[in-house]
Amino acid sequence: MAQRRKAGERTPIGEVWHASRGGLAAVVLFSSFVNILKFAMPLYLLQVLDRVPASRSVETLVILTLAALAAIGAGIALDIVRRRMLLHWSEWIDEQLGPRIVQRSLAGSELHRASDARHGLANLATVRNFVGRGLANWIDLIWAPVFILGVFLIHPILGAVAVLSVIVLLVLALAHDLMTQSSRRAARDAGRDTSEMIRTAERNRESLTGLGMADALSGKWEAASRGRSVERETAEARGLTFRVAMQGFSRIMRIGILAVGIWLFLSDILTLGAIFAARVMAGFGYTLIERAVRNWRGMREAREAYAGLAGQLAPTRELSPSVLSGLKKSTFVFDTVGYRYPYQPNRVFRRVSFELEPGEMMLVTGGAGTGKTTISRLATGLLAPRSGLVRFGEYPVSRLPAKLRAELIGYLPQHIELFSGTIRDNISRLEDAPFDRVVDLAKLVGVHDVIARLPAGYDTPVGPDVECPLSGSARKRIALARALFGRPRLLVLDEPWANLDRPTQRKVGATLRALKDEGTSILVTQAVNSNRLARLADRFMTLDENGAEITSPERPAAKQAPSSLLRRVK
Question: Which of 317, 518, 519, 484 shows the shortest CA–CA distance to 406?
Fold first, then answer.
């Protein structure tokens, strides 16, 4: 749960803007000089064509030429500097906001479901690319009216021609955007679908190959890819037509300026120098607008991405309640907890209540879809109750800071995932923990000998994209060692017996017994009752197929029906 921002307190994006003020001021100043120095060219033409032929002074020609070259060279140098500054700024923005997006997205619970890491990083990449490549064009855009005004000052008719050209350019740009919008969207959606097909195939390569589904999936990919190609070709063809039209109209505008200017010259209203100066300034103004128009889509996408980032990073910090030092010794409590998944009419359960003291273990059993995994996720703070509280003492688990929650709770999910890295990285939760500590945890869960026999030992690479040399049982024990990292106060195990043979079950059972003796509370969910787990458990809960909760403080008899053994909690 996020705190509301206090007065005077900056958001992460606000901090970035505040730290960037000096650099942005320099970029705007450099942009001003870059565009002011562009006036050197029309002034040069005005002086050279009007004064030099009349005076026939070579010295004047040389001085004017050198001055113009110096101004143009200075403008080029400043343009290079400001564009490199913007490029550096874009990378700095990525360095500042990227880690915060990942931390906020991956450390959040259900309360931050909208904060998705991939979506946030994609938004950040869009903003970064716009700042590094397109922002300079939009900063220059404010100088386009100045160049058009310069044409008006030379003669209003030439200014009217320039303004008419700009209007036609804007109409073409608007038509381009409207006529290619649907094709671009369809191509983008099709591209997302084809990419998702490939990612799914890579994640499930074994099933795909074993079931002979490769041909069918490649056929679906080909159909989606063909549709994407058609839409992309349509969008690109229309875009090419409008781009060529805009470029062609730019040449028409220049010819129009020259034609009208020569007419005014023949009428003894303008000089040749004024005509060419007006042509150059009109070209500068038109070009600045054309560049911005071409980057209009990038500007719009950057604005949408920026709004997404602002919403994702709006909370400045997680709610961090003051916590007493003895929290690890507090009772873990489910206090009349109810939960219903979004868009589902019925609750998974309505009122679940139990307490676990340090050193106690609860065994939760039930069939598929009765809410066992939901119990696990509520206990770890991954889900927040719709009613009631899950708490340590008086502190709701879902409101505890992620770091403190990780210290208090260890979690073994039902579906094991090893992160990209080494075995050591996975056991230490990607932290730089002492190696002895990692080995002790591996020994505790009985997987050390398996790891030691590997050629690279604890430095063996694992992950979703690595051909893992470990069995399902070894992977589960590595995940269990990861859950035990930091000696948590509560250990939540979702289907821990799955993929474990009997010898391994005995080792894990011995580990759980040792943890209980050390004062760790253990919450275990299991589809079927296990005598080994039942002998360890102090409390029991059975969830029936209707989601009703049935609990008992006593161990159930081996051959007695659960309904006659356990009392229903209303």
Answer: 484
Question: pTM, whole model, 2 decimals?
Answer: 0.67
Q: Report the percentage of the chain scoring pLDDT > 90.
A: 12
Residue pointed to by tokens 């997205």: 105
CB 490 within 8 A of CB 520: yes
Which residue do the tokens 């929650």 mark?
405
Tokens of 216: 């069918």
Q: Which residues contact 267 (CB under 8 A, 6 or more apart)?
A: none
**What are the angstrom distances between the C-alpha of 133 and each of 35, 76, 320, 386?**
18, 17, 40, 46
Task: Classify residue 468 as left (phi > 0), alpha (psi -120 to 50) or beta.
Answer: beta
Rounded to 10 degrees, the C-alpha dihedral 363/365/370/372 comes to 40
The least confident of 85-94, 146-155, 530-539 is 530-539
* Residue 341 three-state SS: coil
Query: What's the pLDDT at 39?
Result: 92
> Where does residue 140 rank: exposed (0-12), middle (13-18), buried (19+ CB within 10 A)?
buried
Ranges of beta strands (E only) in 444-545 are: 461-462, 490-494, 521-526, 539-543
